[in-house]
Amino acid sequence: MNLWDELEKMRDKQRKQLASSRAVVRFDEVPWELNKYGKVKWYTHPSIKDTATRSLMVHVLEIPPGSRSGKIQHQGGTAYYVWAGKGYSTINGEKYEWETDDVLLLPILPEEGVVYQHFNTDLENPARLVGATPNIFDAVGVDLGIGLEVLENCPEFEATQKVKKGRFYERKRSKA
Question: Do 91 and 71 meet the contact criterion of CB atoms below 8 Å apart?
Answer without folding.
Answer: no
